[in-house]
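Thread: MFS transporter, structure

OP (GT): Posting the sequence first so everyone is looking at the same thing. Length is 491 residues per the record. Can we get the structure tokens written out before standup tomorrow? I want them in the notebook alongside the other entries.
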Amino acid sequence: MAEKSVKAGEIIARMDRIPIWSLSYIFIGILGMGFLFTFFDIFDINVSFIQTALTIFHVTSPSSPEIGVLLGPAVLLNLVGYIIGSLFLSPMSDRIGRRNMLMITMAITGLGSLYNALSNDYLNFILARTITGIGVGADLAIVNTYIGEVAPVNGRAKYTSFVFLFSTIGAGLGLWLGLLLTTPPAPFPLGLPFALGGSGFLAVNGWRVMYGIGALLALIGLILRFNLPESPRWLISRGRLEDAENVVRYMEATAKRKIRELPPLPSVIPPLVIERLSYKESLKAIFGNSRYLRRLAVLVPMWFFGYMTVYVLAAGLTTILASLGYPPPEAGIIASFGDIGFILCALTIIAVGDKMERKRWTVISVLFTIIGGLIIALAKTDLPLSFIGSMVLFYGFNLWVPVSYAWSAESFPTRARATGFALTDGLGHIGGGIGTVVIASLIASLVAGGISTGLAVEVFLLIALFQVISAGIAVGLGHNTSNKRLDEISP
């Protein structure tokens, strides 16, 4: 066994010395397609839910506060599904492999989206959102685990953000297709002049088409994932050294075509090889080790409070703006411009995400969230300024996410990495669910007292408050992982 462990350490050292992405860039695209669908599913409800509520939930007005109340449980149960998938499905990748579970999770997600497209009442709608959430929760955990295990030491945040960039495309599709397919035409910038949701089939079924597109995207992602290689670190952890060496040999050959000569081997750190691993043993690896338990105690509340802000804005900004008196098409346009900030945040982390410790990004992120919310609140009828505010807001509440994905995956050992990520991200999503219900109810009660600029400022500061708490936890208690070898950070 000792000889096997040394051999495993040598293979990992060979992988750790590769300073660039050494798989085909096509694989980033394949993983990115999964993120594209996942975030399409998260954001497609933002604009389209108003039409859904009017057509099958019998709400009488597009500006009714009742829409926000109905949105809360829909998002909450989607997140409940997310938590179930994250906690109970993604840890299976520690047992049966990252690649196998990535195909299973994408299939579940696509079936959930198809169910959404066919639902005819509130109960079936929220059940479909729950099933979709199960697939999404597991998928996000495994994708981030996989990226962390194959990316170079100095680029884990960078390549996590490359995949995250696809999520911005998915979010943009969810927002803009929602405007195109579920809102009536209106002169820009009050809406889209060419919007199709005002008459005919799409006037009552545009939202169904949205979820049908989601199911199609999931099918494409599933087919592409058959080409993914298994994570060498996972293969090594299960004693499959020959298979792992074949993948690493391919990675070395790919890297040499780009940089000709590889750096010297770093020191060999023999990993723990466990040929049979149960979920119980993965949990024991975390809860039985004070180092990983402390990290869990920091990362869970960081995600919990951070997601309270993220999900209120990601799933509900259009509804929030409509409840503050904006015409729904205008509210949808303002929210949709936010995707530009979303894209810019991914590009920022690609460029400089590994230059600074992960926890410090949470502070920068929350500052932009506050500034963006205040710009929207103070812009009143100045739409160009509202668009800028939306871009800044989306830049802020998303900036910390890809870095923290990398941080969470780095914080646990290979034998329990997917389990550890699932616990932090999955339990953290409870905050997202609570946030959508509690904050929606608070906003509804505030709006009942009359709409004013001061009220809008209060609303956006209230939403940002939870991200402030998240950043305080990360900076005050968080550990350092940037530019360190995985087996040094999490042996």
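GT: Both are above now. Quick notes for whoever picks this up: The chain has one domain: 11-258+285-480. The CA atoms of residues 2 and 386 lie 62 Å apart.
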